[in-house]
Amino acid sequence: LLPIGVVTAIVLTSSVIYFARLQVSLPTQIRQGLRRNEFYLEYQPVVDLNSGNWVGAEALVRWRRRDGRIMQPDEFIPVAEHSGLIGLLTERVIEVASKDMGTTLRDAPDFFLTINLSARDLQSGGTLEKLMVMARDSGARPGQIVAELTERMLVDASAAKSVIKAMREQGLRVAIDDFGTGYCSLSYLETMQFDCLKIDRLFVEAIDTEAATNRVVLHIINMARTLDMKLIAEGVETEAQANYLKSQGVEFAQGWLFSRAIAPDEFLKGLA
Length: 272
Ligand code: C2E
Ligand code: CA
Ligand code: CA
Ligand code: CA
What we know:
Elements: H1 4-23, H2 26-35, E1 39-48, E2 54-64, E3 70-71, H3 73-82, H4 86-107, E4 112-116, H5 126-138, E5 145-150, H6 151-156, H7 158-169, E6 173-179, H8 186-190, E7 196-199, H9 201-205, H10 211-226, E8 230-233, H11 239-247, E9 252-253, H12 264-271
Parallel strand pairs: 2-4, 4-5, 5-6, 6-7, 7-8, 8-9
Antiparallel strand pairs: 1-2, 1-9, 2-3
Helix pairs in contact: 4-5
The structure holds ligand C2E and calcium ion (3 copies).
One calcium ion (CA) is lined by residues 177-178, 198, 234.
């Protein structure tokens, strides 16, 4: 039998270790992950529906943790947003994208790269500047870089409007992402100019099945035409969806029908 003092010591030590581990909160882990370069990007091709060619890519961030586990953005982007780390993360995303895709942007002047931004990224001019540096360093036209913003970001961020305007004045392009899932009204959209509208996967998914949703999709398409925006359909998984979208004049699409998000070297092979 162990003396009581030893037992107490063991219990105390192991609980200290246990709680110390628990206390390495996700924000702290994100910070460490940034320091250790654990964040990397995959690229999902954007396809021209008429030619079938890959004409662009969306950069999607992933986190390879020290234990080898891959974390998906839905698991850590919201945490990064709430803990004030998103600025650092976005900065990293832009740096990595610049390394991965700089040469492609320079060599294929019509190729475009889309980068997801968060609301906080619009609260200062910093992001605009970093995107411009990316364009300059890689010898790309600013118009090859597309900032993706969600509807939700626009509703409460009053600063957003002026940053978006400034981005477009500098020649960057701006897309509205996940369209139809937020709260933007048509009249609100009319007050700002976007270059591109991304039709959310929810609507694309319903194309084969629900007539009512198809009317919504047609409405979105018409609206984009009226406001002179290009269209990218997201989450295209079937030929039927692709054909329908193409028949309605949608220019671009992304989705598993064409390709999942893939590593940069694989992407460049596919592009060649
Ligand atoms: P999102 O911008 O709407 O990105 C599209 C998501 O749909 C991606 O998930 C993509 O992998 C997935 N997807 C693409 N094609 C298909 C398909 O055919 N079917 C289905 N079911 N899904 C498809 P992912 O990579 O997990 O990203 C999730 C979200 O995380 C993104 O949604 C975006 O909001 C956010 N995110 C990703 N990367 C970044 C980033 O660098 N910065 C910020 N702020 N957010 C990011
Ligand atoms: Ca996006
Ligand atoms: Ca989206
Ligand atoms: Ca989404």
